[in-house]
């Protein structure tokens, strides 16, 4: 990203690494909507930034204090790589995504260059990298880095109890993983909001019982008819600021609205007080960024290894070769009707 609305190849020096870090080269990368969102100024101005934060990488070199990894290792790279010595991460019940400040553990794009490069660096390698298990495919492993971690976090934030009725707004990659996460946590009825046919099909496979389309009438009316009233929790994985009002209007008292959607900086929430019970509804509104680090990715990989879920099915636009990254980026930016997620596979031989 040279500047807002201008992307292309950029020559930069190979990143320097510290004693705790690793220098990597990508073997597979995926493009995220937040990469394209950023390129259009959704996070504000940025200049000469290498994009990308979803990668499987090969270790090229490690710092002198790295103990667990060596050159040649194929590793899963979380999108969120905390500096584990930060005091914020020692606080009780804190989300490690916010070590050093809000979302400061999301270092790719915001504090350093991303993974769409011949070389990229990972801080605190021993705590942030995970060896890719032999019995986990590249596709499945690549989707743990952000899509699965974020979608599942939406379900975790929603405080889902066994048998709950849950609504998921959006059936893009993150919404699909929120559906899978809600089912894994024991939701009884899952209602998903979306219109794309292949996404709807995959939503059902991941656990959705009902698909609601805004093209077929008022979304809130459709949800309450299916649920027989209000629902226990709502997960926002797509939409805009008005989606928050829809979510608030369908959630029961003592329920949760869990947001994992990346809103545009230009949007504003305006919530009528009656929708929140004049402030007395005991509806919790949570917005969060997925936790990072190797331990979380290990747990997600364990679910895949034991055949609980296969997030690699999200990748339906696949490209071969480093030079194809712009094609994958363009697909994610333009979003053809059948797109779910685009990825690039790189062989450096």
Characterise the protein shown here:
This protein is α/β, with parallel strands linked by helices and 349 residues long. It has 2 domains: 22-148 and 290-345, Quinone Oxidoreductase, Chain A, domain 1 (Alpha-Beta Complex); 151-287, NAD(P)-binding Rossmann-like Domain (Rossmann fold, 3-Layer(aba) Sandwich), CATH 3.40.50.720. The chain is 27% helix and 20% strand. It contains 9 helices and 13 strands. Strands 1, 2, 3, 4, 5, 12 and 13 form a 7-stranded mixed sheet that branches. Strands 8-7-6-9-10-11 form a 6-stranded parallel sheet, with helices on both faces. The chain starts with 21 loop residues before the first strand and ends with a strand.
Helix and strand arrangement:
Blueprint lengths: L21 E10 L1 H7 L14 E9 L11 E4 L42 E3 L2 H4 L1 E2 L6 H20 L7 E5 L3 H12 L4 E5 L3 H10 L3 E3 L6 H9 L3 E6 L4 H10 E9 L24 E4 L6 H12 L9 E6 L4 H10 L6 E5 L4
Parallel strand pairs: 6-7, 6-9, 7-8, 9-10, 10-11, 12-13
Antiparallel strand pairs: 1-2, 1-4, 1-13, 2-3, 3-5
Helix pairs in contact: 3-4, 3-8, 4-5, 6-7
């Amino acid at each position: 990203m040279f500047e807002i609305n201008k992307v292309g190849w950029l020559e930069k020096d190979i990143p320097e690494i510290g004693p705790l870090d690793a220098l990597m080269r990508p073997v597979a990368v995926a493009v995220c909507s937040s990469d394209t969102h950023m390129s259009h100024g959704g996070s504000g101005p940025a200049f000469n930034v290498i994009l990308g934060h979803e990668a499987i990488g090969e270790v090229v070199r490690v710092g002198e204090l790295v103990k667990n990894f060596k050159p040649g290792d194929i590793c899963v790279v979380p999108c969120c790589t905390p500096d584990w010595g930060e005091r914020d991460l020692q606080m009780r019940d804190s989300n490690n995504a916010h070590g050093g400040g809000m979302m400061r553990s999301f270092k790719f794009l915001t504090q350093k260059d991303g993974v769409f490069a011949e070389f990229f660096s990972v801080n605190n390698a021993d705590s942030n990298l995970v060896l890719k298990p032999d019995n986990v495919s590249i596709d499945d492993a690549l989707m743990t880095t952000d899509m699965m971690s974020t979608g599942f976090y939406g379900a975790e934030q929603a405080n889902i109890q066994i048998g709950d009725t849950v609504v998921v707004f959006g059936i893009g990659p993150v919404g699909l993983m929120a559906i899978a996460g809600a089912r894994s946590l024991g939701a009884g009825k899952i209602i998903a909001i979306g219109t794309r046919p292949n996404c709807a099909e995959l939503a059902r496979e991941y656990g959705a019982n009902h698909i609601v389309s805004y093209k077929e009438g008022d979304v809130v009316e459709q949800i309450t008819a299916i649920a027989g009233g209000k629902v226990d929790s709502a997960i926002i994985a797509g939409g805009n600021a008005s989606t928050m009002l829809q979510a608030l209007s369908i959630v029961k008292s003592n329920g949760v609205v869990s947001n994992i959607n990346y809103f545009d900086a230009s949007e504003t929430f305006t919530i009528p007080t009656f929708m929140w019970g004049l402030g007395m509804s005991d509806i919790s509104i949570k917005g969060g960024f997925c936790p990072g680090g190797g331990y979380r990715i290990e747990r997600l990989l364990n679910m895949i290894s034991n055949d609980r879920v296969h997030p690699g099915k999200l990748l339906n636009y696949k490209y071969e070769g480093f030079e194809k990254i712009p094609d994958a980026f363009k697909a994610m930016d333009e979003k053809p009707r059948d797109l779910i997620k685009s990825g690039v596979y790189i062989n450096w031989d």
